[in-house]
Amino acid sequence: MLVTLQEILKDTREKRYAVGLFNCVTLEMTRGILLAAEELRSPVIIGPAQILLPPASLEDYCDMMLGMARRARVPVALHFDHGFDPDLVERAIALGFSSVMYDCSLLPIDENIRRTKDMVKKAHAAGCSLEAEIGHVGSNERSVGARIADSVYTDPEDARLFCAETGCDALAVAIGTAHGLYDTPPALSFDALRHIRDLCDTPLVLHGGSGLSEEDFRRCVLDGISKINIFTHNNLAAARAAVQSFSEKTGAFELMSPIEAAVRQETMRHIRMFGSEGRA
């Protein structure tokens, strides 16, 4: 069933579990994620990110995922992740996404607040939830763009002000994670996370989750994280399954089942770590 992000996260902090956002870009990945959630009776969040749009349009992703989310036997939020372009965020709202992320984290905080507050009004008017980000979660990639986007840790007082001013439904915070694969384990600032949690009632989001240890995930959840983003591990699991299953006599159809199964198993592993099993 399709639900908003606000609804899917409403009791996460009280009951100390987190719901996974599993970014997906193909039918096989989407099915694998939803089947994992249904098997474990877990709420789940699915959807693309702006950076994942070049191979397919926002409309194409929505056409594929919206019906699947509505038919699912567990609560599903369809989320447009890391929307930097306000026109794209508004398109996602109009298309029927039940949640959007408007990422103005690279802007000065006053401008971030102003733009987010305006987008919150538009999202809420359409019955859609909105996630924002303060601080900035950078990338482990080695590209020039990634080097420019170095992480900026979230200031707890800024987070309190931001939530109060914007009315956002979820807040992504930077506590030491980064997007992509880690060369070495990240040093997470749990003290900062607890400080932010104590100042903000808004559900908190952890980006850059792929590659964290089970201990790190569980500690983040206990210290206030309500939503955890995963893409890299599922993306790699899908690619490995395709490579391992391919032969010169294998077509695209024959690769669908192994890709789906690999993503399903990887998603189930994370659902159990996040503590959302049986919460649907």
Question: How would you describe what is shown here?
Answer:
The longest helix has 23 residues, at 252-274. An 8-stranded parallel beta barrel has the order 1-2-3-4-5-6-7-8, surrounded by 8 helices. Residues 140-150 have low confidence and may be disordered. The protein is globular. It has a single domain (5-274), classed as TIM Barrel (Alpha-Beta Barrel). With 280 residues, it is an alpha/beta fold. Helix 10 links the parallel strand 7 and strand 8. The protein contains 12 helices and 8 strands.
pLDDT under 50 segments (min length 5)? Answer: 140-150
Order of helices and strands: HHEHEHEHEHEHHEHEHEHH
Q: How big is the Rg?
A: 18 Å
Number of domains: 1
**How many beta-strand segments?**
8
Portion of residues within helices: 40-55%
CATH superfamily: Aldolase class I
Number of helices: 12
The CATH class is identified as Alpha Beta
Shape: globular
* Overall average residue pLDDT: 91
Task: Report the biggest beta sheet as strand number plus sense, adding barrel if it closes.
Answer: 8 strands, parallel, barrel
CATH architecture label: Alpha-Beta Barrel
Question: Separation of termini?
Answer: 11 Å
Report strand %. Answer: 5-15%
Q: Structural class, please?
A: alpha/beta
CATH third-tier fold name: TIM Barrel
